[in-house]
Amino acid sequence: MSDTGIWILDTGGRDGTDIDHDTVRGLIRDLVGMTRDRGVGRSWAVLAELDAPEMTDENDRALAHDRVGRLAVRLAVDTVISVGESRSVRALHQGAVMEGSWGEEALLVADAAEALEILDAQIGDGDVVLIAAGRAGDLSAVTNALLDSDRWTATLTAAPER
Questions:
Q1: With contact defined as beta carbons under 8 Å apart, do 11 and 133 qualify?
Q2: Strand segments (E) across the chain
């Protein structure tokens, strides 16, 4: 991989594939490994509500999202952006905060446009961005805007099959 431009690790979940908590935990590991292996740039996790078809209880879904936020911090993702206003997304953000990230390291935003504003202002050459959302939390606008930007070269890297 080149050190110039940015790398986007996208789940592709918009095609009807379930993007669940286990999948995203694996993708966070991939993100951190990819960033570490390259030795340059920062890691970003832009996460919206994830699929949980087996979880009908709202509390269980919130706890699963909380665990995702905590794992991202434990594995030292540089910035976690939680996107959405649902209880589950707030739990994801709170998990990151409770695990030790705050300020600019763990951000909660209302929508994809707000997440894109942050990315547009802060990402730089060598950064790797994981964009993951379930069916209810489509972040395709973020992926498309990063790919279409004239400010950097963006390379889309498909998420590994899990």
A1: yes
A2: 6-10, 43-47, 79-83, 106-109, 128-132, 154-158
Using an 8 Å Cβ cutoff, are 81 and 92 in contact? no
- CA 76 to chain CA centroid, Å, is 13
* The Cα angle at residue 120 between residues 50 and 23, in degrees rounded to 5: 20
Question: Which residue type does 16 have?
Answer: G
Cα-only R_g, the chain: 14
Tokens coding 25: 């935990």
Banded model confidence at residue 158, pLDDT cuts 50, 70, 90: low
The answer to whether 19 and 160 have CB atoms below 8 angstroms apart is: no
> Global pTM?
0.91
Task: Compute the distance between CA of residue 13 and CA of residue 38 in angstroms, rounded to an integer.
Answer: 26
Coil, helix or strand at residue 69: helix
Nearest CA among 32, 30, 50, 142 for reference residue 92? 50
Residue whose tokens read 């509390």: 59
pLDDT in tens, 103-138: 789 999 999 999 999 999 999 999 999 999 988 888
